[in-house]
């Protein structure tokens, strides 16, 4: 009896001891290590899903009251395989070749046989129709992943203004790069409990659903009809001038809206990967500063008018050459000589005439510090050369204006600057300054984004134009300059072919090109420009033309660039339905 | 002291006794009471019912989760089809394509433009 009693006590004791061990262990696991195991459990049955934000679309104006898409998103699919689960490699290869065709990846047949791989891409960027056909085949070990691809339905239209999106989803060049943040939006997050198949089942407090913020839909100031015509006229104008490079811009001078911006050569952003010469990606109208040449004479005349130093009929004695320090300034045309008006200076593009204006700005008969300071102040403060205009496009440069206090800012440089040499500016800078000079004196920031379209793609919110400076020129000086440019245009051969009854004006420019090999201006290369306006009785558009390497003889400003202006200006008068006067 | 209040109390007691006059005077007592086992079983049953209710609710939530997932997938598919159609429409309406159309090719440039005077 004693023995049995002891045995029972031992068993009870053991049970109690084991029970205590369990209790202690459970206490350790459930109480002391509660947080750790709870975290582990949550990690086991929850999954984080990224909900990608949709990149904003880009539209252009299509006439006055419609919008046309320039950039859209197209759903495309990547086909991948897990070779471990692929049962019939031959069938998969056949189906993929038949349906995906040229979209299959190189050597995918070999990778399908490699069981060590758990994931391999076998086709990229296939369409929804192709994806549906592949789904129907019900291939073991083959899956589809949806992505979006940027699509440019107008192909090369305004390509350098738009830019493109690279493989990492980042905007490159143009508006895609400049406004990448606004266009990209912000990805959402879904942190959800999932079932065994990884499908979220929305159970538990740890489920979090942060919706994505889609990118903004932009409407550009570009009118697709003007843009298309601008590109067409630029290309045909370059062909006629036997030139290979050029740019053309159209702006509304009364609010700074860029209506068209074209460069040649260009590219198709749908196929940007096939481009070999990367320089075609950049928008030369904003990112390639150059010595604009004689088109700047229009602005120097504006300074003279605003300072009260000249009137349109003020005369000077034209001797065709001028000696400035150790340099000789020459006119390209050698007649007329003698008494010549300021309007004739613009019509015949006399270098000596604008150098004379520079002299008068200093109050004397020679170029002096005061005259140089006045010109420098106008060029940098009023016309805003030497600084970016603020246009919302990637790669804008500010150009360079040498101060009169700089050792390089001597009399010869300033004589050259008065007719657009010895300084550098981009087309958008020159055109914005010109627009301010002929619109009554208001400098508008060149505007490329006109506003935003809502998610319904109907609600349009316009962005107001930004005035950067008023009083660039007085209203009176601006009106006189317009009239001088009008008279100068009609008084020269460049108005040939122009529609009658309209108020147009402009100035040619044939700039010498600096040759880094010789350290001097090239004897053979020039850049031809034309800077002008058109409208019924006030400027309703301003146009700037640049032709880089004309080979059709004559001065490239008048022989190559001016005809492009005339053709586009005539078309703009019709397109904007501007009636002729009288 | 005999007050009007005491008179009311007595009247109430008499009324109560009058009501009880015909009631059984023998108190009934059940022969068997609920023991501890029954209590435990009942509690277990109640817990089981509560558990079932909880499970039903959880299952319902999961079902809604699947329905939500299905609807989200459908929404994504429709959005994707919409984008596809948008792109197709834009391609068909692209200027280059319109210019190459037979209708556009048949158009001619007007010889001159006349403006009607609104005055």
Largest interface, counted by CB within 8 Å of the partner chain's CB:
A-B, 27 and 23 residues
Q: What class do helices, strands and sheet pairing of chain A give?
A: alpha+beta
> What is the CA-based Rg of chain A, rounded?
35 Å
* Euclidean distance between termini CA atoms of chain B: 117 Å
CATH superfamily of the largest domain in chain A: DD-peptidase/beta-lactamase superfamily
Helix percent of chain B reads over 70%
Tally of individual domains of chain A: 2
Count every beta strand of chain A, where a strand is a DSSP E run of 2 or more residues. Answer: 23
What is the N-to-C order of secondary-structure elements of chain B (H for helix, E for strand)?
A: HHHH
Please state the CA-atom Rg of chain B, rounded to the nearest Å.
46 Å
Overall pLDDT of chain B, averaged? 80
Which oligomeric state applies?
heterodimer
Number of strands of chain B: 0
Q: Work out the strand percent of chain B.
A: under 5%
Shape of chain A: elongated
Question: What structural class do helix, strand and pairing data of chain B support?
Answer: mainly alpha
Description:
The complex is a heterodimer of chains A (582) and B (119). Chain A has 2 domains: 50-215, Penicillin-binding protein 2a (Domain 2); 222-269 and 287-556, Beta-lactamase. Helices cover 35% and strands 24% of the residues of chain A. In chain A, the strands form 7 sheets. In chain A, strands 2, 3, 4, 5, 10, 18 and 19 form a 7-stranded mixed sheet that branches. In chain A, strands 12-11-23-22-21 form a 5-stranded antiparallel sheet, with helices on both faces. In chain A, strands 1-8-9 form a 3-stranded antiparallel sheet. The termini of chain A are far apart. In chain A, helix 13 (351-361) crosses helix 14. By secondary structure, chain A is an alpha+beta fold. Chain B is elongated, with a radius of gyration of 46 Å. The mean pLDDT of chain B is 80. The interface between A and B is medium-sized, with 27 and 23 residues.
């Amino acid at each position: 009896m004693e023995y049995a009693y002891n045995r029972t006590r031992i068993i009870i004791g053991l049970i109690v001891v084991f029970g205590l061990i369990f209790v202690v262990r459970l206490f350790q696991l459930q109480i002391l290590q509660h947080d750790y195991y709870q975290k582990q459990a949550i990690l086991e049955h929850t999954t984080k899903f990224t909900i990608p934000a949709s990149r904003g679309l880009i539209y252009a104006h299509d006439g006055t009251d419609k919008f046309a898409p320039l950039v859209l998103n197209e759903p495309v699919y990547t086909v991948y395989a897990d070779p471990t689960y692929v049962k019939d490699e031959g069938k998969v290869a056949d189906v993929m070749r038949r349906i995906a065709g040229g979209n299959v990846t190189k050597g995918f047949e070999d990778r399908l046989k490699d069981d060590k791989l758990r994931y391999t891409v076998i086709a990229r960027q296939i369409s929804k129709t192709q994806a549906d056909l592949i789904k129907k085949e019900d291939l073991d070990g083959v899956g589809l992943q949806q992505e979006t691809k940027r699509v440019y339905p107008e192909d090369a239209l305004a390509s350098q203004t738009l830019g493109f999106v690279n493989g990492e989803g980042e905007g490159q060049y143009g508006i895609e790069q400049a406004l990448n943040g606004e266009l990209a939006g912000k990805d959402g997050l879904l942190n959800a409990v999932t079932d065994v198949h990884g499908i979220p089942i929305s159970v538990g407090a740890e489920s979090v659903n942060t919706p994505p913020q889609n990118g903004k839909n932009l409407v550009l100031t570009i009118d697709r009809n003007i843009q298309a015509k601008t590109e067409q006229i630029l290309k045909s104008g370059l062909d006629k001038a036997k030139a290979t490079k050029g740019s053309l811009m159209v702006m509304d001078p009364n609010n700074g809206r860029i209506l068209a911006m074209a460069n040649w050569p260009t590219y198709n952003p749908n196929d940007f990967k096939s481009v070999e010469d990367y320089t075609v990606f950049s928008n030369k109208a904003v990112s390639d500063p150059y010595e604009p040449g004689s088109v700047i004479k229009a602005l120097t005349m504006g300074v003279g008018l605003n300072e009260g130093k000249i009137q349109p009929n003020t005369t000077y004695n034209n001797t065709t050459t001028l000696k400035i320090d150790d340099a000789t300034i020459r006119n390209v045309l050698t007649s007329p000589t003698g008494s010549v008006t300021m309007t004739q200076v613009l019509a015949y593009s006399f270098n000596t005439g604008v150098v004379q204006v520079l002299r008068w700005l200093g109050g004397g008969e020679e170029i002096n510090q005061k005259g140089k300071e006045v010109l420098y102040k106008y060029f940098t403060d009023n016309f805003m050369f030497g600084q970016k205009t603020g246009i919302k496009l990637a790669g804008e440069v500010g150009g360079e204006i040498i101060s009169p206090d700089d050792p390089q800012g001597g009399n010869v440089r300033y004589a050259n600057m008065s007719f657009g040499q010895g300084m550098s500016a981009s087309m958008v800078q020159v055109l914005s300054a010109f627009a301010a000079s002929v619109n009554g004196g208001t400098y508008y920031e060149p505007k490329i984004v006109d506003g935003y379209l809502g998610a319904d793609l109907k609600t349009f919110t316009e962005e107001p134009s930004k005035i950067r400076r008023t009083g660039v020129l007085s209203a009176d000086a601006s009106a006189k300059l317009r009239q001088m440019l009008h008279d100068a245009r009609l008084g020269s051969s460049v108005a040939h072919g122009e529609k009658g009854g309209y108020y147009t004006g402009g100035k040619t420019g044939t700039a010498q090109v600096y040759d880094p090999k010789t350290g001097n201006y090239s004897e053979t290369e020039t850049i031809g420009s034309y800077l002008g306006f058109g409208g019924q009785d006030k400027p309703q558009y301003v146009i700037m033309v640049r032709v880089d390497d004309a080979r059709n003889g004559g001065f490239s400003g008048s022989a190559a660039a001016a005809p492009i202006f005339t053709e586009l200006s005539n078309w703009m008068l019709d397109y904007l339905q501007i009636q002729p006067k009288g | 002291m005999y007050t009007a209040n005491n008179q009311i109390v007595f009247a109430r007691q008499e009324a109560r006794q009058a009501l009880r006059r015909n009631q059984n005077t023998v108190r009934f007592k059940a022969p068997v009471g609920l023991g501890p086992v029954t209590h435990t079983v009942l509690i277990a049953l109640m817990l089981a019912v509560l558990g079932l209710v909880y499970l039903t609710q959880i299952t319902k939530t999961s079902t809604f989760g699947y329905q939500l997932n299905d609807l989200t997938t459908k929404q994504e598919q429709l959005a994707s089809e919409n984008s596809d159609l948008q792109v197709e429409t834009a391609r068909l309406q692209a200027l280059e394509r319109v210019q190459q159309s037979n209708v556009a090719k048949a158009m001619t440039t007007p010889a001159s433009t006349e403006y009607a005077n609104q005055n």
